[in-house]
Amino acid sequence: MSGGGRHRRRIRIALPVAAAGVAAAVAATLLSSSAGAATALPRPTVKPATSAPTLAELERRVAGAVAGDDTAGRTGKQSLSTSSDSPTVDAKIIGGTTTGITSAPWMAQLWYYDDRGTTAETDDIGFFCGGAVVAPTKILTAAHCVKNYDWHANGAIVTGTAQLPTTDSAGNTDLHGGTVTGVWRQWNHPSYSASTIDNDIAVLTLPNPVRATPIRMTTSGDTASYAAGTGAKIYGWGRTSSTSDDVSDTLKTATLPIQSDSTCAGYYGADFVKGHMVCAGKPATGSDAGTTSACNGDSGGPLVVNNRIVGVVSWGVQDCVAKGAYSVFAKASTYVGATYPRVDDTNISGDHKADLWVRESSTRTGYSKDSKGTGFAARESWGDWTGVNVVLQTDLDRDGYEDLVYRVASTGDVYWTHYVHSSGSWSTKQIADNWKTRTRIVVPGDVNGDYLPDLLSVDSGGYLWLYPGKGNGTFASRVKVSSGWNQYNSVRGHGDFTGDGKADLIARSKSNSYVYLYKGTGKSGTGAFSSRIKVRTWSGYNAFDAVGDITGDGKADFLARTSGGTLYLYKGTGKATSEIFATRISVGTGFQRYDLWG
Predict the structure, then answer these.
(1) Which of 36, 271, 486, 520 fits as disulfide partner to 462, beta carbons 3.0 to 4.6 Å?
(2) Spatial distance between the Cα atoms of 202 and 187, rounded to a whole number of angstroms
(3) Is 299 a catalytic residue?
(4) pTM of the complete model
């Protein structure tokens, strides 16, 4: 490689190793503690994560990955393993310093080991990537660490420790105080390109919540964090020197200055995709001395500004220190819209496509219908749901399992029912008292920008109230948003309709069937939503639903039913204009039989 770095070989930077009722004075308010619930309604058997691996199996995977010498995103092996006779170097992200897990409690280690089902070791695949906990069951990482790998069958995630695992001569694995879990499901950006390493973003969903404190991604409108010269921190366990394949046993961090797009493109040319990537660091010197850089093993780890993820470690030059080179990251602000549905998903079957919950009016039987992307599968019974007049799909405790919020018609009381994975059963809790006069209840996701699912309601006076969620089925004190909401005969929302990573609302006027978009701002109170934008005129429909990303493409979708019972899917486009939805697609007839929608 020449000193000027003009003949560069792009590499993925992946590790080469291994009820009591409330008092009258506060009636009709939201409850913040458990209350006596009504008779529990039927619940289905939850199946998706029942095949979670044992601790012994997870430790076997970790040990296998530690002994591996593969690089994520490559099919062939390269001689980059950490051997005991490698030269001893000062352990660091090149140019960085040691840090503890308390300074980065959201850091995650992603270990992958596939022995390919053979007795030979030559075909084994074992590698490591970094990642960040962005919700209790969600790990943000790089697509090249995920695409074409079966993480459910072969992956193990370690959180809560700054140390890499070690194994002794007897094969016992020491996690050094960390916790290991399997992977339930995986998602990578659908447009990820292995050849260009573009759209290099992915999310792993865990079968159980971890205790690690999550960190948020930045917002789509964030420009300040990307201003040239802004100090950004990287974290990882990657290679410690350009001349050794050793990695760091302890978490390291370094501060890199953000570089302008023109600077990055000036060095990398067409390899650097403006808007999709960001580069950081001072120009490498050509050696370890004077260079501060991410390196192999840091892949998937976060680039952080003001305690928000602004980038994900993606790629760089061979050996990380070629003269003039910079570390390259997937630009988080561009991909927050695509990842939002993966972090706050409403999904019964666990396949990244939002499913539909309905109730048949004649029998009062509830049903779930699994999304197939452009339609729904045969319905599955949830039993008798008599006496309920509102049912909403959500995930208030952010455990990756869908919850339901429902209102009892006779009392107006509102309940939250959720699956408890530790016991394999459902739990029901009252969350609001006497909401008979509430004209609308909505569970759109995270409204105020804290990554915790919130709840909205419209009272009899037309005021919209925000109830900030705490991530455990309880809520902070309500905040008034605005008035005039009883002019609408439908207010729906679940997720992000505009691709900016913020929860939005769709409302239809009673008087003229105009459909309005209320863009979420990520704020609370009167600033929670921008001024409405007219996006459609929808007459001829008598029911609507928003359950999230039905197609699995990272954009929130919408459902509308005609009086004749035909249900149409309006695929989201991510545009905040009249083109907010694509041309409608019929997903079935006979839907007039249903009187409640999730």
Answers:
(1) 486
(2) 6
(3) yes
(4) 0.84
